[in-house]
Amino acid sequence: MGPDREAKEAARRRGRAARRAANARLRHAAATAYERLSRLPEYERARRVLWYVSHATELPTHEAIRRELARGHRIVLIPYVHGRHLRLWRLEHLEELRPGAFGILEPPSELRGLPEREAEPEHVDFVVVPGVAFDLQGRRLGSGQGFYDRLLARLRPDCARAGLCYDAQVVAQLPAEPHDQSVDLIVTERRVRRPR
Fold first, then answer.
1. What CATH code is carried by the domain that includes residue 166?
2. Residues 6 or more apart whose Cβ sits within 8 Å of residue 27
C-alpha cells in the first residue's frame, strides 16, 4: 500500500470515528442540515435531485427524503448499485426500498429497469453526496469503492454537488488522487461552505 493509500485509510478511520461520535450526540443535526440545504438557491432551482439513502453512521436522510416526496416540488432520485456503477431510480415512497448492496436501501429488483423509473446522470440538477470526510477545498473521501466518483464524473457541469455531513467530518485537507471527484458545497448542521 502506497503512502497516498495509507493516508486515505488513516483519514477514512478518522472520518468514520468523527461520524460515529457526531451521530451519537447530534440528533438534531440531520433536520438542521436539511433546512440549510433546502434553502440553497441551487437546490430551490433544481427539478431533479439525487439523494443518497443514508446507512449506518451517515448523516440521516430518510426524513428529508420523506419531506421532499410529500412536498412534490421536485423529482427525487436515488442511486443503486449495478455492477461497478451506480444507476439512478425515481423514488415514489421510501417503503418501496429493500436492503441491497452493502445493506443500503435500494429499489427491489422487480422494479429496476422500468423506463418510467430509471434516470440518467445527465438529467440530475442537484446531487446530495455522502462522504466519510470532506475538506475545505471540496475534496471528498468516500468509502473506497469509487461508486460516487464514477457517478459524479458523469454529471452535467452545471449540476450542483453538495456534500452533506456532520461539521466534525470537515477537515482542513484530504489526500487526493486524479480520479477523485470534488463537491461545490458542503452542508452541515452548522454552516454551508462553498469551497470553489
1. 3.40.50.10420
2. none
Range of the domain at 165: 3-193
Q: What is the DSSP letter of 37?
A: H
Which residue type is seen at 93? H
The DSSP string of 91-148 is -S-GGG-EE-GGG-EE--GGGTT-TTTEE-GGG-SEEEE--SEEETTSBEE-SSS-HH
Using one digit for the tens of pLDDT, what is the confidence trace for 46-62? Answer: 999 999 999 988 999 99
Q: Is 169 left (phi over 0), alpha (psi -120 to 50) or beta?
A: alpha
H-run or E-run covering 50: strand 48-50
Cell numbers for 55, please give them.
446507512
Q: Hey, which residues does 120 pair with through a beta bridge?
A: none
Q: Could you give the number of structural domains in the chain?
A: 1
Can you read off the three cell numbers belonging to residue 40?
Answer: 440553497
Cell of 19: 461520524
| Confidence at residue 29, expressed as pLDDT on a 0 to 100 scale | 86
What grid cell was written down for 158? Answer: 452545471
Global pTM reads 0.86
How many residues belong to the chain?
196
* Residue 181 grid coordinates: 471527484
Residues of the chain short of pLDDT 70, as ranges, are 1, 23-27, 196
pLDDT of res. 21: 77
- Locate 134 and state its grid cell: 470532506
